[in-house]
C-alpha cells in the first residue's frame, strides 16, 4: 500500500521537480489552460512525451520555486518567467523544435458546448436550415429574434443569425437553443501565451516566421539604417555605398563645371561636347538587339518557300 504524502512533502517534491526541469531545459512554453480537462491534458502529455514535459501547478508555488532556484544558482534570467505566470497557466519544458511543439499542442482541442456564464471566445453564428425541432419549440427562436418558418412539420431557420458575439457572456436562452440544435461552438485546449528561450521571452507569433519573412525584415531594417545614416551624415556599412556614389557624383559635377578632370570625367566631358557620341554608343546595343529579330524574320520568309508547290510547276488539277 502506497503511503500518502503530506502537503508539506508534496510541496518539497514539487519544488525539487521544478528546479530539476529548470536546470535541464532552456526552452519553456507558457500555456493557458482554461477549460482544459484532465483527460484532455493526458492526451496532450502523450503527444509530447518523446521530447517535452508538461508541468501544471499553483502560480504562487511556481513563482516561489523559480525565485529561490534563481537565487541559489545565480541564473537571474529565470526571473523573466515570474511575470508570465498569471491566471490558469502551466509550463511545457522541451528540447524539441519550438514550432513543432507549439503545433502539436494546438492539435489537441476538444469541442465544448456553450455553458451559461461562459465568456464567448469567438462569434457564434447559427446557420440557416432545418433544425429537426417540432413547431412547439418556436418559443426559443422567438425569444432570440431568430426568423423561422414551419417546413414539413419542423422548424426551419431562414437566415444565418449571429447569436453570441465574442467577449459576451452566454445566456440561458442561447445555451438552451444551442444544446437543442446539438451545436458545440467552442473548442478548448492549451494555448501558447509566451515563449522562454535561454533567458529571452517573446511572443509565440515569432515561431510562425519563415526564412523569407526574416530576410524581408532584415532588408527593411538595413534600408532604414542606411536612410538614417544618410540623413545625419553618420557612416555605417549599410550607408557606405551611398556615401561613395554621392561623393563620386559631387566630384564629377565639380570636374564638369571646372577645368579639373580625371579619367571617368573625361568621357563624360566628351559626351557633353559632342552629343552625337551618345547615339554612336547606343547604336551597337540597338544593333545587337535587332539582330535576333531580323534572323527570325528571315527564317519565317524561308519556310513557305520550301513547302510551295509552285516551284515544281504543278497544280492540283495537272
UniProtKB/TrEMBL annotation:
Domain Large ribosomal subunit protein uL10-like insertion: residue ranges: 114-183
Superkingdom to which the source organism belongs: Eukaryota
Name used for this protein in its record: 60S acidic ribosomal protein P0
Function statement: Ribosomal protein P0 is the functional equivalent of E.coli protein L10.
GO cellular component: cytosolic large ribosomal subunit
Key words of the record: Ribonucleoprotein, Ribosomal protein
GO biological process assignments: cytoplasmic translation; ribosomal large subunit assembly
Region described as Disordered: spans on this chain: 293-318
Subunit annotation: P0 forms a pentameric complex by interaction with dimers of P1 and P2.
Protein family (similarity comment): Belongs to the universal ribosomal protein uL10 family.
UniProt-listed InterPro entries: Ribosomal_protein_uL10, Ribosomal_uL10, Ribosomal_uL10-like_insert, Ribosomal_uL10-like_insert_sf, Ribosomal_uL10-like_sf, uL10_eukaryotes
Pfam family, one: RL10P_insert
Molecular functions (GO terms): large ribosomal subunit rRNA binding; structural constituent of ribosome
Amino acid at each position: 500500500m502506497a503511503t500518502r504524502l503530506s502537503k508539506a512533502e508534496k510541496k518539497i517534491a514539487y519544488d525539487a521537480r521544478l528546479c530539476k526541469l529548470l536546470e535541464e531545459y532552456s526552452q519553456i512554453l507558457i500555456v493557458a489552460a482554461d477549460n482544459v480537462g484532465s483527460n484532455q491534458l493526458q492526451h496532450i502529455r502523450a503527444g509530447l512525451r518523446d521530447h517535452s514535459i508538461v508541468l501544471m501547478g499553483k502560480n504562487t508555488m511556481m513563482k516561489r520555486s523559480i525565485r529561490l532556484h534563481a537565487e541559489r544558482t545565480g541564473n537571474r534570467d529565470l526571473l523573466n518567467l515570474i511575470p508570465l505566470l498569471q491566471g490558469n497557466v502551466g509550463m511545457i519544458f522541451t528540447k524539441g523544435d519550438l514550432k513543432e511543439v507549439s503545433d502539436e499542442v494546438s492539435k489537441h482541442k476538444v469541442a465544448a458546448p456553450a455553458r451559461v456564464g461562459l465568456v464567448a471566445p469567438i462569434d457564434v453564428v447559427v446557420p440557416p436550415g432545418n433544425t429537426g425541432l417540432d413547431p412547439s419549440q418556436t418559443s426559443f427562436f422567438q425569444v432570440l429574434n431568430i426568423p423561422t418558418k414551419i417546413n414539413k412539420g419542423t422548424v426551419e431557420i431562414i437566415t444565418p443569425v449571429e447569436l453570441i458575439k465574442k467577449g459576451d457572456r452566454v445566456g440561458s436562452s442561447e445555451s438552451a437553443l444551442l444544446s437543442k440544435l446539438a451545436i458545440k461552438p467552442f473548442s478548448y485546449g492549451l494555448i501558447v501565451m509566451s515563449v522562454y528561450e535561454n533567458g529571452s521571452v517573446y511572443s509565440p507569433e515569432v515561431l510562425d516566421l519563415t526564412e523569407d519573412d526574416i530576410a524581408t525584415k532584415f532588408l527593411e531594417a538595413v534600408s532604414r539604417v542606411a536612410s538614417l545614416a544618410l540623413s545625419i551624415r553618420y557612416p555605417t556599412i549599410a550607408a557606405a555605398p551611398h556615401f561613395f556614389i554621392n561623393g563620386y557624383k559631387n566630384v564629377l559635377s565639380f570636374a564638369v563645371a571646372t577645368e579639373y578632370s580625371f579619367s571617368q570625367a573625361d568621357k563624360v566631358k566628351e559626351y557633353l561636347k559632342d552629343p552625337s557620341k551618345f547615339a554612336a554608343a547606343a547604336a551597337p546595343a540597338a544593333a545587337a538587339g535587332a539582330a535576333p529579330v531580323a534572323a527570325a524574320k528571315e527564317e519565317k520568309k524561308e519556310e513557305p518557300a520550301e513547302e510551295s508547290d509552285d516551284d515544281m510547276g504543278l497544280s492540283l488539277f495537272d
